[in-house]
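Thread: Ferrochelatase, structure

OP (GT): Posting the sequence first so everyone is looking at the same thing. Length is 353 residues per the record. Can we get the structure tokens written out before standup tomorrow? I want them in the notebook alongside the other entries.
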Amino acid sequence: MSKPFASRFRPEPADPHAFDTRPPAREPGPPGVLLVNLGTPDEPTAGAIRRYLAEFLSDPRVIEIPQWLWQIVLRGFILPRRPAALAPRYREIWMPEGSPLLVWSLAQARGLQQCFDAEGLPVRVQAAMRYGKPAVAAAIDSLREQGCERILTVPMYPQYAASTTATAVDAVAAAAGALRNQPELRFIKRFYTDEAYIGALAARVRAHWDAHGKPEKLLLSFHGLPRRVVEQGDPYYRDCMETADLLRRALGEDGALVEVSFQSRFGAEKWLEPYTEPTLKSWASAGVRRVDVMCPGFLADCLETLEEIQGQCRKAFLAAGGREFRYIPCLNDDPAWIDALAGLVRRHLGGWI
Ligand SMILES: C=CC1=C(C)c2cc3[nH]c(cc4nc(cc5[nH]c(cc1n2)c(C)c5CCC(=O)O)C(CCC(=O)O)=C4C)c(C)c3C=C
Ligand SMILES: [Fe+2]
Ligand SMILES: [Fe+2]
């Protein structure tokens, strides 16, 4: 007997029905929901940050220049230096249970699971990270072990960007590409127009103003992107601007306080403008004393919101003459947001439940 060829597909778990010739007796199992966020280091150490950045920044969806050239820059200049500089910044925001992005992502998956359990809907929810852990492939395995033959993926970004949404879709498709018995797949593209998402943001702003009073301006700071990728057709900028318009409308007259900026520029290229920190500084110089800042593109607090906005941008605004800087936290595990997410998911599960 010759040895079988090695298969490029992973073996499936043993199926007692594999050769069953009777009519199909099995139901397709509960639908699975996969919440995919970006990913974060396992620990706030230079070593763990290096592993994370090496994976993240080697994704051609994130850095759109020829890989041979980029890998020289990444391995020669970025990976030897940036992790050590980032470690203290991650330590500053680290929670007792781990990295905030992971802690909130797991809380969102738990909250959503509880919503479906309470409704008696047989849906299984799993959180995954595009880079690092829990890996997308492992999360899909876990859903399949729970009997899910149909999986809805929710990239956890209300606004579409190729560098976030599309790469999450690619990762799920690649994981399915390693399977012989593939689950049926669905994806949510974006959801910034969802009324309940906008409503949850507006309610958070209102609650904050009820507790602290209104500011002179409310800055919505979105993660930036290279200007070039928007010129090449990425719809992200318009998605952000429309999000801001919808939130303005939801805030009624106070919508006039809303302004937009873009944060977290990386590299030397021009990114989307206006940039967040220079905007805050110019406001302070022009006599603005009280600002609130919110990051509606991030569903979970993370390095970019806690350290960059609540930390660095606050300092910059106060140093330039501002008096009060208030950061309004991300939706995280806000019950109004978890309800919004449950509604969104339920609509996309149409026909499966
Ligand atoms: C060219 C580089 C980058 C693009 C494009 C980009 C887009 C983008 N990122 C997020 C969300 C997050 N980014 C986070 C961290 C982060 N982002 C980049 C680079 C790009 N992002 C880097 C190098 C890093 C790591 C930190 C650093 O070195 O400055 C995070 C936080 C992760 C955490 O651990 O807390 C999130 C979330 C979006 C939404 C987006 C495009 C719309
Ligand atoms: Fe980023
Ligand atoms: Fe950053």
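GT: Both are above now. Quick notes for whoever picks this up: The pocket of L6N33NVT (ligand 1) is lined by residues 38, 40, 62-63, 82, 86, 99, 101, 157, 161, 163-164, 223, 225, 236, 264, 266, 297-298, 302-304 (CB under 6 Å). The beta strands are 32-37, 124-129, 150-155, 184-187, 217-223, 258-263, 290-294, 324-328.
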